[in-house]
């Protein structure tokens, strides 16, 4: 498959970070922290996904969503920007895409409709309408834990013929489901939507990862993904699986925001209701895993320096 280029930026980067949305303690968007974490991702060379479920996109008003996208666009970062599209109201999502079509973004993440649980034909109608409206390449998103149903593999095979259907984020957590998509759409770029499964899915043909943990560990997570893609897995599985597990001890993005607050990257761990950081009673395991990942990264950097 040819490298897709938009504004001289390749969308086929190995790591996309599903960026959190920082809030002040009073619930207002913390644009200073937002800019800081976006620049941290750009410095690591990671693509940026805005307003996904990790970014609490559905808890934001339309004006707030637009203000976030416009703010990041103004930074002119040297990495691609992807904007999430998701919900239930098709007309509202088409209007959101129409708005973002006028902005200097590079791609869309098209989520399955929430709650409705459509069958294969309903899924096709939903995604085909979004693809027809989108002026940029699109990554479809299979996330049955939120939509209640898997994207049908035959429906995906029909959708892949749209010129702007570029990739799939697969977040079912099931290797068998990934392999069904791989067989049905061998030319479609498949990305893992499960951080801990990246080494396994890389061996099955994944092109990269759309990540939560990269919010806290931008450079280390990129190294984790690159090692997974290179099949250099010695010692990789237990370290990263143990590190990732506490980031999903309660609903995402509660733990990763708490960790970023502990790292003094965010000014507050605040979330929008119904999510709250008070559901995470203890951050000790997060801090311990953060230290282990920092040590691993330092050791890797030391090895690279010796061989450079």
Indicate the topology:
Blueprint lengths: L4 E2 L2 E2 L4 E4 L12 H14 L2 E4 L11 H13 L6 E5 L4 H11 L6 E5 L8 H14 L4 E5 L1 H4 L5 H7 L5 E6 L4 H10 L4 E4 L5 H6 L4 E4 L6 H12 L6 H9 L9 H9 L21 H24 L1
Parallel strand pairs: 3-4, 3-10, 4-5, 5-6, 6-7, 7-8, 8-9, 9-10
Antiparallel strand pairs: 1-2
Written overview of the protein:
The chain has a single domain (5-231), classed as Aldolase class I (TIM Barrel). It is 43% helix and 13% strand. It has helices at 31-44, 62-74, 90-100, 120-133, 144-147, 153-159, 175-184, 198-203, 218-229, 236-244, 254-262, 284-307, and strands at residues 5-6, 9-10, 15-18, 47-50, 81-85, 107-111, 138-142, 165-170, 189-192, 208-211. Strand 4 (47-50), helix 2 and strand 5 (81-85) form a beta-alpha-beta unit. The longest helix has 24 residues, at 284-307. Residues 1-5 have low confidence and may be disordered.
Question: Care to give the gist of this entry?
Answer:
The chain has helices at 31-44, 62-74, 90-100, 120-133, 144-147, 153-159, 175-184, 198-203, 218-229, 236-244, 254-262, 284-307, and strands spanning 5-6, 9-10, 15-18, 47-50, 81-85, 107-111, 138-142, 165-170, 189-192, 208-211. The protein is an alpha/beta fold and 308 residues long. The protein starts with a strand and ends with a helix.
């Amino acid at each position: 498959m040819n490298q897709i280029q938009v504004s001289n930026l390749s969308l086929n980067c190995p790591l996309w970070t599903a960026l959190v949305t920082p809030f002040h303690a009073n619930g207002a968007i913390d644009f200073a922290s937002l800019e800081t974490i976006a620049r941290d991702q750009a410095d690591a060379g990671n693509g940026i996904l805005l307003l996904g479920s990790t970014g609490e996109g559905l808890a934001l008003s339309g004006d707030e969503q637009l203000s976030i996208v416009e703010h990041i666009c103004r930074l002119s970062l040297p990495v691609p920007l992807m904007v999430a599209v998701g919900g239930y109201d098709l007309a509202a999502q088409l209007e959101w895409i129409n708005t973002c079509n006028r902005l200097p973004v590079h791609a869309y993440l098209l989520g399955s409709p929430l709650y409705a649980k459509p069958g294969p034909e309903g899924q096709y109608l939903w995604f085909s309408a979004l693809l027809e409206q989108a002026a940029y390449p699109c990554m479809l998103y299979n996330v049955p834990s939120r939509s209640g149903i898997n994207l049908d593999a035959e429906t995906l095979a029909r959708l892949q013929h749209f010129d702007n259907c570029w990739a799939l984020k697969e977040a079912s957590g099931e290797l068998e489901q990934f392999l069904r998509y791989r067989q049905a759409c061998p030319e479609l770029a498949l990305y893992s939507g499960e951080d801990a499964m990246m080494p396994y899915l890389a061996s099955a043909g994944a092109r990269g990862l759309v990540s939560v943990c990269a919010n806290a560990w931008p450079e280390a997570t990129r190294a984790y993904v690159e090692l997974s893609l290179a099949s250099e897995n010695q010692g990789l599985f237990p370290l990263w699986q143990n590190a990732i597990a506490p980031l999903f001890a309660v609903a995402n993005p509660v733990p990763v925001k708490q960790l970023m607050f502990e790292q003094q990257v965010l000014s507050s761990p605040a979330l929008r209701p119904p999510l709250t950081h008070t559901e995470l009673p203890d951050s000790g395991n997060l801090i311990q895993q953060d230290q282990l990942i920092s040590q691993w990264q330092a050791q890797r950097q030391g090895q690279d320096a010796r061989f450079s």
